[in-house]
Amino acid sequence: MGHQIQAGEGCGAAARLFLPYAQEEFLVTLANKGLYKRAVKDYDAAQECSLALSDGQQLAVTIDGVTVQLDENLAKSRCSCPSKTVCKHVLMAVLCAAEYGAAQQEEPAAKPASDTAACTEAEPEPEPYLELRQADVASLRKQAGKRLFEDTLRLVQAGWTATFTEGEMLAATINTEAVTVYFPKQESLSHAVCKCGQQGLCKHKLIAVLSYLAQNGLLKESEGQSVSLLSEDALALLPKADQYLISLFEKGLLYCGESDIEQAIQLSLRLDSVGLGNLSRLMRSVATDLEHLLQKHAAFRSETAFATLSRLHNTISLLQKYPQDKEKLPALVEGGRSDYYTTPVGNFIGLGAYPWQTRSGYCGVTALLYSREKQQVYTYTASMADFYENTAQASSTWSLYHQFSRADHWAEGLSIQTIAGSCLTLRNFKSNLQGRLSSTKQTSCTITGPSNGGLLEELEKDGIFSAPEEGYTYFRRRQPERVYPFFTTHLAQTSFDKSEQVLRLLLENEREQFSCSILYKECNQWAIQFLERLARGKLPPCWFICIKQQGEMTPVSIITENAVNHFYFVDQNGVNRLV
To answer: Do the Cβ atoms of 89 and 17 come closer than 8 Å?
Structure first.
């Protein structure tokens, strides 16, 4: 139903500027579906509507006594009501301005507020999306900040892109999330609006802009507009890191001392600060290997240590040789932990959970969850430091069991025990490029049933799980947790190597055998005891879920016909039964 809208002189042209915004899909982006429906209902019932131009030529819309100062960048619009965010009155004001503007199409186009000179001829219509087409990558990097820009660049190089639909505005839909970015025809970049609701330049807007430039052949390599993953600081640090590695090769690991460990730790921190996350992690591994060697710890593996050193040296050499090679750099460079992004809904199968502790002073419990949509394994972790006085016992077996059974995760307050043993649907969940799930309370979880062997049999027939990889690949990008389930009917062999402090297992079925092992740590002691007892009894047909750790396949859970058995943990009576 049309409204009787009172308007001052020149309001028609100003109101027409808001015609492209009066679309349900766009206004929902500014707020939400419920607020939009309420705004439409209240606007239909409005009795008095008026438009006026302020001194700055900004359109003021008054509806039943509430005034909104509309800005073309709608997120900056101001309302006389107490709301500090985009309220229903802003949506109503857009609908009112668009209604009046559509009825006044014959009125001449409004002059920009900044144009104080008298004009007798109509100015030509500016080229649509000109600001977007002229986007400068160097400026985007500066505006977004180093970390956000480089994280987003890695998302783009990992396959994230946008699909564009042009109407009254240019709608860019991110292909990996249900998120749309809207670009108006004029001031398209500065007035862009993203469905995520974040003000300023978010990762979705960056993905959309970079995708637009790439798809239209506008992403040019020129001075100040390079999209290389290597910064000047990174290029300056690489020779120093390589010289350190060469010094280790020259004198031999046996002659290394505490100063070499400290230097590796410092280089790890510096490599992370310049965006070389993969090299940072490898350098931290060097420090850990040297610690193990000096302490004559059973965890030291000469093959793994030299493979780490070789990978570091070869990767750094190639980075220095090809600092601007767009094809090679994505394989050689990986950042630190990436930002988390939101996905509306996902279905997961719990594959079990296991405890862990590091020599750097952290411990925790990690659950493995298989995503049906992404066909990959995600991890959900609860962790804490154990080097503070009040957390010194955090890595004890019973403390880790408490983390495992404590019910306070996600909106419903679930335990990791429940999460890791169930089929579940997550809504509004956050994850990053490393396949880690966030603990945000905004995530809602619905349990749809228990995980069981039948589900794994179904997935195996579909070829979902690949066999464990043989050998060592230098330049493989860091992957989410790799899981290998082995259907087992018999524990063919179980032995504990006292010299290496390792429990070795030989799993067997009617077709093949599979070897795995568990390194002794305090957090693993119950698992080792349980498996030794299990070997002396009768094993029902089940699936052993294994992951690769330090070059070895390690079992983390057992899945039977009915449920998941978390054999690293016990119940309150100290008993763990195979169900």
So the answer is: no
How far is residue 274 from each of residues 54, 56, 150, 203, 244, measured CA to CA in Å? 49, 45, 10, 19, 18
Cβ–Cβ < 8 Å for 490, 535: no
In 320-473, where do the E strands start and end? 341-357, 362-371, 376-385, 422-431, 444-450
For β-strands 5-7 and 49-53, DSSP reports them as: parallel
Element (H, E) at 381: strand 376-385
* Residue type at 446 in one-letter notation: T
- Is 253 in a helix, a strand, or coil? helix
The single-letter code of the amino acid at 334 is E
Strand boundaries in 167-294, DSSP class E? 170-174, 180-183, 193-194
Distance of alpha carbon 136 from alpha carbon 143, whole angstroms: 11
Query: Are the C-beta atoms of residues 186 and 126 closer than 8 Å to each other?
Result: yes
How open is the CA angle 262-229-152, to the nearest 5 degrees?
A: 105
**Token pair for 530:** 């349980």
350 close to 447: Cβ distance less than 8 angstroms: no
Nearest to 357, CA basis, from 397, 388, 389: 397
Q: List pLDDT tens digits, range 244-278.
A: 999 999 999 989 999 999 899 889 888 877 878 78
Residue type, 200: G
For the chain, the maximum distance between any two Cα atoms, rounded to a whole number of angstroms, is 98
pLDDT per residue as tens digits for the range 148-167: 887 777 677 666 778 888 88
- 201: helix, coil or strand? coil
Place of tokens 């790890």: 268
What pTM was computed for the model? 0.57
- The secondary element (H helix, E strand) that includes residue 209 is helix 203-215
Contact 231, 273 (CB under 8 A): no
Residue 570: closest CA among 525, 536, 519: 525
Q: Which of 112-116, 287-291, 336-340 shows the highest mean pLDDT?
A: 287-291
